[in-house]
Amino acid sequence: MDKSIWHLRNCELFQTLSEGWIRRLESRSRMATFHAKSPIRLPEDSSNYLYLILNGMVRLSHITVDGKESILAFVGPGEVFGEGAVIDGSEVEEHVMSIEKTSIMMIPASEVTELLNENSGLAFSLTKLVGLRRHRIERRIKNLLFVSIRERLIHLLLDLAEQFGTQTENGVLLKIRLVHLDIANLIGITRESVTILLGQLRQEGKLEIERHKIIIKDIRGLAKSVNRTPVRTEIKQAFPFSLNPAIA
Predict the structure, then answer these.
(1) Strands of the chain, DSSP E
(2) 248 falls within a domain
(3) Bridge partners, residue 97, by sequence
(4) Sign of the Cα pseudo-torsion (76, 80, 82, 84, in order)
(5) DSSP code of 3?
(6) Is 241 in a helix, a strand, or coil?
(7) Cβ pair 40, 97 in contact under 8 A
(8) Residue-wise pLDDT tens digits, 184-226
(9) Most buried among 9, 35, 79, 148, using CB within 10 Å?
(10) Do 45 and 11 belong together in one domain?
(11) Can you give the residue range of the structural domain that contains 180?
(12) Residues 41 and 61 in one domain
């Protein structure tokens, strides 16, 4: 089986498609690979594609008028971005940057739109994906206004555990490469505050940070501390990660 067809079949969004549609999407899509820290898409770019990440990781963000970055989301293997081109044909608004070496399948939006008209299940899955990502962003915005910086960090750790966590014998490992500045840009605090707060959580036994990895030791307790329903602690990924998780 061609690798691109395998990737499509193992993407949750496309798992229910017929063999004919899988091969049609594969034959009309483009493959691209980007080095770490490479721009993939800028706000001024026009885009007629839905992007499927095969391996690696990308960051979606806005750049403010004073040049500061506001990170919106991270997207990993088996996930898509650029859904605006499919849903409403909206223009690109985010900066998209690869965090590490990343391979992407670029699927023509017109093909996906035609497919959506024929497959209600796919339409529901895409809507659910967009809704979940928007919910995370909206929750982060509310947190900026109404909760303490410690609570913001805890909510972020829980979000990352839900999206990129995997259960280990020591707790939930966050399999994503983040430096302190990334975390600061996600929750609107300084890098120094991130360092202090992570240190506090580590001293309290809630986190384990060693060998450039973050492990949440007690995810239920962490969720309870911010009155949040415990997140799933075991995430099944369609593709193996090639990340070197880092905190610096």
Answers:
(1) 30-34, 39-41, 49-55, 58-63, 69-75, 80-81, 95-98, 102-108, 165-168, 171-174, 207-210, 213-216
(2) no
(3) 39, 59
(4) negative
(5) H
(6) coil
(7) yes
(8) 988 889 999 999 999 999 999 999 987 768 999 989 989 999 9
(9) 79
(10) yes
(11) 147-224
(12) yes
Contacts of 42 (CB under 8 A, 6+ apart): 92, 95, 96
Q: Give residue 84's identity as a one-letter amino acid code.
A: G
pTM: 0.74
Axis crossing angle, helix 3-10 with helix 19-28, rounded to the nearest 10? 120
User: Rg for the chain (alpha carbons), in Å?
Assistant: 18
Q: Which helix (H) or strand (E) holds 121?
A: helix 120-146
The helix (run of H) or strand (run of E) holding residue 137 is helix 120-146
Residue 60, strand partner residues? 73, 96
Residues 156 and 105 in one domain: no
Instruction: Note whether 93 and 43 are within 8 A (CB).
Output: yes
H runs (alpha helix) in 147-226: 149-164, 180-187, 191-203, 219-224
CA atoms within 13 A on the CB side of 101: 3
